[in-house]
Design a protein that fits this description.
Layout (H helix, E strand, L loop, with lengths): L3 E5 L6 H4 L8 E3 L9 E2 L5 E2 L3 E3 L3 E10 L4 E11 L2 E10 L10 E11 L4 E13 L2 E17 L1
């Protein structure tokens, strides 16, 4: 299943958690309003160096949310067009009927990209938003991060 990049809580989250959506170097589509206090995102949705060299293999990690202990990372795919990399992370449920209630925002999915020209490289991670109160709810979201590509 496409990985969860956002978890919508039924209650307001502690400030240390709900400010993640507004801080950092990732932008969201659709945007998360600054007044939103119920959406949890991973501390680092897209992990990659800020500056990379042309033609160098670059490790990219996309972190998704496991809403309980039964969810695990299940790889990812990457497609590149020029200086844009499109990543889809996949998670899988163990199939267990009983799961721990411990969630994680570090289901890591590693891929490798090569940026061919100097300038700005764009990494987009496609995923979904889920709700903690509605297991059938799933809506597409995209996280985007830009990096500098030097000669």
């Amino acid at each position: 299943m496409v990985g969860a990049l956002q978890l919508q809580s039924t209650a307001a989250l502690p400030a240390t958690l709900n400010t993640r959506a507004q801080s950092g170097n990732v932008t969201w589509t659709p945007p998360i309003p600054a007044t939103e206090v119920r959406i949890l995102v991973p501390a680092q949705v897209i992990e990659v160096r800020d500056t990379v060299r042309v033609g160098e293999s670059v490790s990219i990690v996309v972190n998704t949310i496991g809403e309980n202990g039964c969810w695990q990372s299940d790889g990812g795919t990457i497609a590149q067009r020029g200086d844009s990399a499109f990543v889809v992370a996949y998670d899988r449920h163990s199939g267990a009927q009983i799961c721990t209630q411990l969630w994680t925002d570090r289901l890591a999915h590693q891929v490798t990209a090569v940026f061919p020209t100097p300038g700005i490289g764009v990494i987009r991670a496609q995923g979904r938003r889920i709700k903690d109160s509605d297991p059938s709810y799933s809506t597409p979201v995209t996280a985007e991060r830009k990096i500098v590509v030097i000669p």
